[in-house]
Amino acid sequence: MTCLEAQSMITAFIDDNLDDEQLTEFIHHMRNCPDCKEELEVYYTLIVGMKQLDNNEKLSNNFAQELEKKLSYHENRIRGHKRVMMETRFGVSAVITILLAVVLFQLGHMVLHWKSSPLKEDTGKYYYMKVKPHLFYPDDYALRNPYSGTE
Fold it and tell me: Does residue 27 contact residue 74 with C-beta atoms inside 8 Å?
């Protein structure tokens, strides 16, 4: 950010009309440019002092200290917001990684059991029946069914 760009944002900063990206660049410039910082202090004193007079408020004793508090507040707020965003991204990434690992484990487990399960031809004819096979074996059906008509 150039000095001209920073100086054009001074009133927007004082009125809290800068978004976080602009505010980050603005504060960084003010911390590193003593000339712009001095101009910010002058504008801050004039604008905030005029607002206090217009609202019949008591004038501040130390505008420079209030300005420093405002700059620090916004720095800490932006830093905290960035930290929360990073923690959120990390958390989401961790959850996605865990879910992916679980899905891959389950798929591997399914493939392992699918390959190791016996084929239908290798098992007896009663392997897939869930009831007692003697009830459905065709040769025994007539003997076990009292209503079949045969004696």
Answer: yes
- Whole-prediction pTM: 0.56
HSE (side-chain half, CA atoms, 13 Å) at 36: 21
Cα separation, 8 vs 18, in Å, equals: 12
How would DSSP label each residue in 54-90? HTTPPPPS-HHHHHHHHHHHHHHHHHHHHHHHHHHHH
| DSSP sequence for 137-149 | -HHHHHHH-TTSS
Structure tokens at 31: 């911390």
Residue-range domain boundaries for the chain: 3-117, 118-151
Q: Which residues contact 39 (CB under 8 A, 6 or more apart)?
A: 7, 10
The pLDDT tens digits of the residues spanning 84-110 come to 999 999 999 999 999 999 999 988 888
Task: Return d(Cα 64, Cα 42) in angstroms, integer.
Answer: 9
